[in-house]
Write the structure tokens for this entry.
Amino acid sequence: MPIKPGFRDCLWMTVGAAGLLVVMLVVWHFHDQQSPDEQLAFKVKRIALVENMGLNLASVSEAEKSAVMAITDADSQTYADQARAAATTVEQARKELAGLLLTGGHQNEKDLLAQFSQAFAELQRIDKDLLDLAVKNTNLKASSLAFGPAAAALKEMDAALARLATDDLKVAQLANDARIAALRLQALLPPHIAEESDQKMDEMEALMAKEDRAVRKNLEDLAAMPNLTSNSDLKAASSDFARFTDLKTQILKLSRENTNVRSLIISLSQKRKVMLVCQDALAALKNAIEQEPVTERAPVNPR
């Protein structure tokens, strides 16, 4: 059974329609009262704002990518601040243009600005997450540890164990097995740092744990041999591996945060798609304003 609108509903609809009519009349009156020169100046001002938004939008993109690719925290933070500042400038121009379109411009221009505004809000949301990740640089820090102090610790361990590989075949076998397992363990660090998938990281860490057990077992077997009880090279190798183990823990923790990998993926996927929507909306908006005709003001009828 259809429900008839009540008096209050009818009243509100009437008020709403009247309000819309007033806005339309104000816009019409504004446009009608402008001279051709004023209309042209109004058009130029709107186009300038759209172009300003486009230029600063490009600056947002460039600075964001620089923040993702920077190799130091300081540089990443500098570029992230630049991206945020450019985005603020875009928003200021957007608000100014929205105000102008309230008193002039066609409905399709308002629709295009609304389309841009929605996409730009999504872009700002993405950028917040992306830039917060980029400035942490955890993958770069993990790589620095892996190829720096961690590699140095294993190099020193390898050299110490190499000195143990004498004519005693048993000692040589255990020392070489420990060296090989340590190198296999080290080789798993770079792919772990570059990996996006948690599942694959889990698999790599399982392999690392296996090689870690092999190193420890060989070192323990060497330490159990009477002729190596006080061997300085064996003590040095054990100390070096303990140092490497501590560094490995730090590396894996940083690698798991994956901030560089995650920010790069967001930049190349989500950010790129939304950026294209923003750019297309601005291009269409600029074209719509450019196509807007400049009309002659109607002559005043003499009385």
